[in-house]
Every structure is written in C-alpha cells, then in structure tokens.
C-alpha cells in the first residue's frame, strides 16, 4: 500500500512538472488560499486607509490578533452555543452584547478592545 502511495505521489509530481508554469503557480496560490488573503488585505487597506500602507500590511500579516466572527440570532442559547463552538475552533475570545444594557456603549467598548469594524446597515 505504501509503495502504491509513493508511486501515486511520483506520478502526481511528474504530471505537475508537465503543467505550464502559470498553471502551477495558480494552483499553488489557490492551494495556499493566497487569493482570499490578498483580497482581505486590500479590503482592510480600503477601509482603514492608513497613512503608511506598507507598515499597516506588515502589522496585519504579523499580528497575533484573531479573526472576528459575529453571531446574530433571535435565540440567545443558539447564539451562545455557536459562539462557544467557533471560539473553541478558532481559539478566540467571545464578546457578548446583551439587550439589557445600552447597545451603543457595548459596541464602543468592543471597538476599543479590538479592531472590530462596525458598519451601519
């Protein structure tokens, strides 16, 4: 079984070597999700418009800051369970917003604690 697997890998390598360079490069970029990364970086530049774009990009790429995910639901127990699963999977912090308190002040706190971007919809 191991020999067959090694032969399959060798055949795959040989067929990749026969592919045009542009196709190999494109497959590499897709495999490593470089296109979405650059799309995200360009969006961040357009939204934040930093005075030093190069420094901003370097800080963004080297940041330990986790991704931000917003969970909105009419069922608080479902939102909480979903947030816990996502938090565990992505190893990130949960920020909860409750209806009982002033929502605007809660969003201001959230924005000051993170680089959370709030869009008015």
Describe how the helices and strands are arranged.
Blueprint: H1 2-18, H2 21-31, H3 34-48, H4 53-62, H5 76-90, H6 103-113
Radius of gyration: 22 Å
Euclidean distance between termini CA atoms: 56 Å
Approximately what portion of the residues adopt beta-strand conformation?
A: under 5%
**Helix content percent band:** 55-70%
Structural class of the helix and strand makeup? mainly alpha
Q: What is the number of strand segments?
A: 0
Put the structure in a nutshell.
With 121 residues, this protein is mainly alpha-helical. The chain contains six helices and no strands.
Which descriptors would you attach to this protein?
121 residues; 6 helices; 65% helix; 0% strand; flat; disordered C terminus
Describe this structure in words.
This protein has six helices and no strands. The protein has 121 residues and is an all-alpha fold.
């Amino acid at each position: 079984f191991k020999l067959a697997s090694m032969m399959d890998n060798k055949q795959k390598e040989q067929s990749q070597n026969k592919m045009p360079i542009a196709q190999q490069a494109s497959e590499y970029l897709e495999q490593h999700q470089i296109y979405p990364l650059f799309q995200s970086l360009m969006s961040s530049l357009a939204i934040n418009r930093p005075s030093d774009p190069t420094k901003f990009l370097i800080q963004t790429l080297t940041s330990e800051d986790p991704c931000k995910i917003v969970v909105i639901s009419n069922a608080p127990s479902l939102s909480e369970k979903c947030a816990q699963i996502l938090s565990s999977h992505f190893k990130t912090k949960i920020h909860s917003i409750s209806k009982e308190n002033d929502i605007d002040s809660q969003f201001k706190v959230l924005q000051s604690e993170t680089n959370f971007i709030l869009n008015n919809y």
